[in-house]
Amino acid sequence: MAIDYGPASTGVAHGAPPPGGHRAATGPAATVIRIPAALGALDRVAAFVLGLGERAALPASALYRLRLAADELTTNIVMHGYRGAPGEITVDGGIDPDQVWVRFQDDAPAFDPRQGLRPPALDQPLAERRIGGLGVYLAFTAVDGFAYDLVAGRNVSTLVMLRRAEPRPPGGTDASNEPTE
Predict the structure, then answer these.
(1) In this predicted model, what pLDDT tens digit does every residue of 77-101 receive, in sequence order?
(2) How far apart are CA 174 and CA 32, in angstroms?
(3) Backbone phi, then psi, for 106, in 5-degree steps?
(4) How far is CA 94 from CA 26, 107, 123, 166, in A?
């Protein structure tokens, strides 16, 4: 997992579409939804991500991780970005030959989710750990790439999951029921 810890203006992760929307979601595999900035809209984001991942034939574990990251990012936009104020989140995504990407755009106050992102202090007792940040850390380490940029006053965050086959367990069979080693 590679998280771009650099300045927001560094751009994209793993060849994701430019965060500023310079490449619009197009073609049969690209879609866009606009949702209210409310926790009640999380199901629509989940359905969007699941549908995109299924069309891309992502392995179940990759699809689960992409949905986890999308849920966490959306929740943070609603709770910490808009803070209960009305707003809208635009979610678009696409399927490229080597990756699936999901991009979130919002007009909440500018915030780079990577700010202060650090691994959890698992060696400390729970009562002594810093509150917050664990969900973002887990979500962003679950995907293959994440990029953030501030474009014309809009937060633009892109999640990327590479399209690769899940490794087959030793002693299993492949698609033609031939033994694998």
Answers:
(1) 999 899 989 999 999 999 999 999 9
(2) 35
(3) -150, 165
(4) 8, 22, 39, 20
Cα separation, 27 vs 94, in Å, equals 8
Residue with tokens 């919002």: 106
- For residue 158, pLDDT beyond 50: yes
Which is it for strands 145-151 and 99-106: parallel, antiparallel or unpaired?
unpaired
Element (H, E) at 34: strand 31-36
Confidence at residue 128, expressed as pLDDT on a 0 to 100 scale? 72
What does the DSSP 8-state code read for residue 17? Answer: P
pTM: 0.74
Query: How many CA atoms lie within 13 Å of 125's alpha carbon, on the beta-carbon side?
Result: 2
Characterize the bridge pairing of strands 99-106 and 31-36.
Answer: unpaired
Q: What are phi and psi of 99, to 5 degrees?
A: -160, 165
Read off the amino acid at residue 105: Q
